[in-house]
Amino acid sequence: MTRIRVVWRLFPAFILIAVTCLLAGTWYTASSWRKFYLQETAVDLENRARLVEIYLQDLRPAPDETQINAICRKLGQLTSTRVTAILTSGKVVGDSEEDPQRMDNHADRPEFKEAVQGQVGISTRFSFTLGHDMMYVALPWRQQERTLGVVRASLPMKAIDGALRSLYQKIAWGGLGVALVITVLSFLIARRITGPLDDLKRGALRFARGDLDRKLPVPDTDELAGLAEALNYMAEQLQSQIETLSRQGQEQEAILSSMTEGVLALDAAGRLLTINRAGAAMLRVDADTAQNLEVQEVIKDPGLKWFINRTLSNPDPIEGEMEIKDDSRRIFQAHGTSLRDAHGISLGTLIVLRDITQLRQLENTRRDFVANVSHELKTPITSIKGFVETLLAGALNEPKNAENFLQIIAKQTDRLNEIIDDLLTLSRIEQDAERRQIFLQGQKIKGVLQSAIQVCETKAAAKNITIELNCPDDLRGQINPPLLEQALVNLVDNAVKFSEPGSAIQVEAERAGTEVLVRVRDRGPGIPPEHLPRIFERFYRVDAGRSRKIGGSGLGLAIVKHIALAHGGRVTVASAPGKETVFSLFLKAD
Ligand code: ADP
After folding, report:
1. Is the CB of 527 under 6 A from ligand 1?
2. What is d(CA 402, CA 396) in angstroms, rounded to the nearest whole number?
3. Is 498 in the pocket of ligand 1 (CB under 6 A)?
4. 533 CA distance to ligand 1 centroid (A)?
5. Closest-CA residue to 71 (of 88, 53, 89)
6. CATH architecture of 363-429
7. Model-level pTM?
8. CATH code linked to domain 259-355
């Protein structure tokens, strides 16, 4: 459908109304004028006829026809009117323009008939005498109360029509002028009405483009002002709704990005609509480039692909666990739910991924730990049980063997005691650390190192090992003295255990930036590199047989590690077979 501008719809309507009014006005004026003009002409003719009658009355009774005709001629010339005198018989006795002798009887003329009756007769009709339209006004011609005939004055209609035509022309020119003025005025009015509409249209388009800040100017007409105000109100509402939506979007975005779970939203066709930061990190994809791509293109792991396919084709929530092996081995727990709108129509799928690698590792560690503890406890208990049974079976009666067996039982009991003590120590440190009940205080650490060395002194002396201490007197750290002493005892005790008799062990302490570094150095057998990463695990031993023979629960370094952590520090080891072994304990400086 072709559309036209409002101005072009209003303007012709204005013109049509104006022209119709003008035509009607012109027609009414012209016809009123014509009527008036003819009335005036008739009155004028009546007056002229009355004048002629007065002249004729002055003639003596039974005047001569020639005399009458002469008066008619004279008065006709003077008044530029055709003047006719007709007897009651209808015989024409005088005429200003024709010879009465040659004129036929006028008794049948309508104006004559009315005048003979004593009235003013008016008629407009074709004159057979003159051969054109004439207006006739006839009066009774009286002399001394006697009607002699009729006096008639007439004018050709041509003259009246000519006068009227010139009047019409003036009216027409005037009308044309008025029409032109109306045209210009109506165009200006139409423009004035539609101009603000154009402004409103431009403003509404601006709103549609999203520029909601610039308000529309309010026009001075009531309806358009109402429309502009309604549009401005709409823009305000839109702006506040957009702000609410974008705030909600930002809140959702913030919630999604702060989640530790990976969240993926897919549409029904399997395209990735949203992936949060955690999800992108878990799947090792770039969140921005992955957006709107087929999820199958983005995700390479076959297990996860299969899970997503199942979720897309299944309306019910699905849970699964999968292992992704790329550069590292990670375990994910996945939860898939179909996304539905308010009417229950499927929009796609939501997948939530949780990295449970650590949880599984922890579970494994705990399982291993229980198995290890059982195993560690079982060995001495089996030994004790065996010797007790042997004693009961009769060995008790062999005092030499019995004493030997009882000594072994005592040794194994000590071992059990040692394991249980270490387990209790470890769990106490863990618990206290969890409950934040390990209190640190800033103090000099040399004294703590000295008492730790003192504890190990007897064992070292038995192997002729010297322990050298190198620590500045004023070196201060944030420490829990009993725990730090225990950690150092464990490290020095290990060094003594694994060093050759007659060798030396160094205990050194120094400040390293914001930390205090305590090192225990020995020249024992060293530790092969493959064991280094696991050396701080509970019950981990490089050479289980040898370690057991030397003694030790296998928990010493685990205790050191937990004490370091409780101090907000760490412990590291540097060693290699045949090289020196250095355990470094980092603590916070005071
Ligand atoms: P244990 O109580 O059996 O000594 P630890 O946890 O203290 O247990 O030590 C774990 C293992 O680390 C030991 O069995 C030993 O194999 C190794 N190890 C610890 N300290 C040293 C050291 N100074 N030199 C060589 N090996 C060591």
Report:
1. yes
2. 5
3. yes
4. 13
5. 53
6. Orthogonal Bundle (1.10)
7. 0.54
8. 3.30.450.20
